[in-house]
Specification:
mainly alpha, two-stranded parallel ribbon, two-stranded antiparallel sheet, 5% strand, 48% helix
């Protein structure tokens, strides 16, 4: 699958207009048609600046596909392109090579075809494996070509004695983000051999701060993204509901305190588009979504919606980007529609029902 990077001169001019005017071109409705065009563009044509994150290209694909799916517009992708996307994703699966005994520790999916998929030259990445499986489910794939045994072996190699996960066998930081990805992978493949649930649960609970939310690691400040990752992992492992009611109440209160107009990720921080999903999904898993102020959240998101080219930005008066466009849409639909997406796996309910069919 070929991705073209271009220098968006027209967009640069648009930025200057907004900055000079100092005004947010607000709209009071979701511009579905423009968002469809924006997400479809992510599958083919990316701004020049995106070259710097080519190592996350599979994630950009996921944002585009899942954004279209949430809008009910997957039919905007031709059958030919759907097949090309599926084949491209499978081309990124790292499997053991014939001439090495250590291949399984590196198995999974990686992010871009800039490097060949030989296990001697590349490493699977737990986050890329997660978005690869999500994207395949969105495309309606049957997952039969996923090498489950190797992926489970790769996950086992990434889990540390304290229950945390690294992202790659090459070595990295370890925190709740990668625990979440590992839990999602095991859940989607219906195979928990790759994760020690007891050690994982203990690590997540140890990462809960005195504030009530969860941090990226033990002893750090609670954060909206880390709280989502921890709650979702606990939910998928079936242990969230076993927490004491007092503890669940503390988590709910911390999450509800994150709403100002939209949501922030930590106390005394500005609101940010993406936390409409991170915190909103957390409240959904805690059965407390009804307590958030949907009208205020919607009004804030309308200030970050780009009325010219579609998508959402982090803050008002900025250009949209793939991450905030997807999470802005997901957070908005999660708050306003009960059957929009699965809050823990972060895929549409349509894709989740396909997963249930595969697992039945």
């Amino acid at each position: 699958m070929v991705i073209i990077y271009f220098k968006p001169a027209a967009l640069c001019s648009m930025t200057n207009i907004v900055e000079e005017s100092g005004e947010s071109k607000e709209c009071d409705e979701l511009l579905r048609g423009k968002h469809v065009k924006y997400f479809k563009q992510l599958l083919n044509l990316l701004p020049e600046l995106y070259q710097g994150i080519d190592s996350s290209r599979l994630t950009i694909l996921y944002f585009g596909l899942s954004g279209l799916d949430l809008l009910g517009e997957l039919d905007n992708i031709s059958d030919t392109q759907k097949s090309e996307i599926i084949e491209w994703i499978y081309s990124l699966q790292v499997k053991p090579s014939d001439n090495t005994n250590i291949g399984t520790t590196r198995c999974g999916f990686y992010a871009t075809d800039s490097l060949p998929a030989s296990v001697d030259e590349n490493y699977g990445h737990v986050a890329m494996t997660y978005v690869a499986l999500c994207s395949l489910l969105i495309m309606g794939d049957d997952l039969k070509r996923v090498d489950r045994d190797c992926i489970m072996a790769g996950l086992q190699a990434l889990q540390l004695p304290n229950g945390a996960f690294q992202c790659s066998a090459f070595g990295s930081e370890s925190d709740t983000r990668f625990v979440y990805c590992a839990a999602c992978i095991c859940y989607m493949l219906k195979d928990w051999r790759g994760l020690d649930r007891t050690a994982t649960t203990n690590f997540l609970l140890a990462s809960q701060s005195y504030e009530g939310g969860f941090a990226q690691n033990v002893g750090r400040e609670a954060h909206g993204g880390s709280t989502f990752c921890s709650l979702a992992a606990l939910h998928l492992m079936g242990t969230l509901e076993t927490l004491p009611d007092e503890n669940l109440a503390r988590i709910r209160e911390w999450c509800l305190r994150r709403q100002v107009t939209g949501f922030n990720g930590r106390p005394n921080k500005p609101v940010d588009t993406c936390y409409s999903f991170w915190v909103g999904a957390s409240l959904s898993m805690l059965n407390a979504k009804q307590y958030l102020n949907k009208e205020c959240n919607f009004s804030f998101l309308m200030t970050t919606q780009d009325n010219y080219i579609g998508g959402f930005s982090k803050w008002p008066n900025q250009l949209p980007d793939a991450l905030h466009s997807y999470f802005g849409l997901a957070g908005l639909l999660l708050a306003t529609e009960d059957e929009a997406l699965h809050p823990a796996l972060n895929i549409s309910m349509r894709a989740f029902r396909h997963l249930e069919y595969l697992q039945s």
